[in-house]
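User: quick one - fold this with manganese (II) ion bound?
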Amino acid sequence: MTSRLVLGCGSIGRIVLAEVRTWSGPVYAVVEDESRADELRKAGVDARAGDPTDPANYPEDVDVDVVLVAGDDGEANRRATEAASGRYPAAFVVAVGDGVSGESKAEAADRVVDPTGVMTDYLLELSVGTDSERLVGLLETLRELRGPLAVVTHDNPDPDAIAAALALVVVAEAAGVDAEPCYFGDISHQENRALVNLLDIDLRNLEEPGQIEEYDGVALVDHSRPGVNDSLDPETSIDVVVDHHPPRGPVNASFVDLRSDAGSTSTLLADYLDRFEIEPDETVATALLYGIRIDTRDFTREVSQSDFEAAAFLLPYVDRDVLDRVESPSMSAEVIETVSRAIRNRTVRGDALTTCVGYIRNRDALAQAADRLLDMEGIRITLVYGIRDDTVYVSGRARGTEVDLGETLRSAFGSIGSAGGHADMAGGQLSLGIITERLGEETTLSEPAVREGQIEREAEGDVEGEEGGDVEGEEGGDVEGEEGGEREAEAEGDAVVDLVDSVLREQFFETLEAAPSRLAAHREESDVFDDYGHE
Ligand SMILES: [Mn+2]
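Assistant: Sure. Structure tokens for the protein plus manganese (II) ion:
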């Protein structure tokens, strides 16, 4: 767990400290005045009043991983940065706030943050939602508990409820609260049992409502009211509710998180793990991804952008074998990976999205990704592309827009391959060779990209390839040479992917900008045709 020390508390520092309360590790602070220190202590920060530039005030006998320097006085920030680097040589020191962004000041800092930028990011975050408040609210509720927390699913829990319970237990434990996943009824459906068995999940099966008295707190996941869809007494006092179902009656709990736009409760829990910077273990991650997939019927029903983002967050931690063995999914692991890569690499301009998924084995994954991304909020046009062998495969979808996508792709990419299709569903196969050939000529491309591209082409030629081989061979032994080669190949691959991405993206958006007028022209033509037809 990361431990952090905040030195100074200026205007930026105050924002930082508001955020700090949502972090999972211990937080220490040294601030100038007693009242601020008092305020921070109430918020769970180990704060003391004193001079932030004096190491004598820093916490003793603790390993500090990250130091944030955030006072208002530039000179004091500079001295605090130096003092902290000296005191905690292994710590990562981040200097924020006035006076630390110039050259002379904070050479000791590992990173200097532009305060205006930080402020802007924070304000942006505030304007898009109350995520931080939610995190703080959950933590505060959890920390008020004195004994263990029962995390209760609805009766006869499904994978979404089971996964959400497991993950909330993890969050509670990260907050320092013992917790146990519990359920009434049976885990009966074959897929539910498979999930529990394959992941070796241990949930407590409660048999009588009275057993809940053993716990100090109760959390409900995937449902929101005691006695409704669970076997608790309706009068049970509830501490935490996390659910994605619209409630059919008043929900009473200290902390309530109801987000009915999410496709699953697992989505919400993945979001908590992500924001609290808790790395899920394989069991929790696999269960959550499975929960999302079951509740959204593999991302086809009531799915939202947050479901995809949750899946993308979870995927690196997931045990694919288990996931594949739980059932035979309609969406393969590769497709899920392609979709999540597509989400991560997306560029959105207006209502159109382009994204490069890199190297692919399965072309169908592109079409599925283009389909799924159309479900993202505000998106009406998607273009997904990936590379296999010497071909760049393109797949596009449009919905509820004036744009004729087939026509757009034809005019954007006709010169580098074949492209076209329907107004709402289109695709293409482009020559990777032609795209990379442009490298040498294009001056708009960045230098490194041009160089990498040349290496790529040169490596194909015999003579120059040998030259390269000699140099490498001389530099290191065989093994190292091979390693270097692999790394180089990877770097070249990245450069090719970046190039393909930028060429297709720019070409597409450029063509798209001209598209509405073209479509209007088509309309006129067909109107004219209609008129003739009626005559
Ligand atoms: Mn659910």
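One thing worth noting: Residues 191 and 328 are 10 Å apart (CA to CA).
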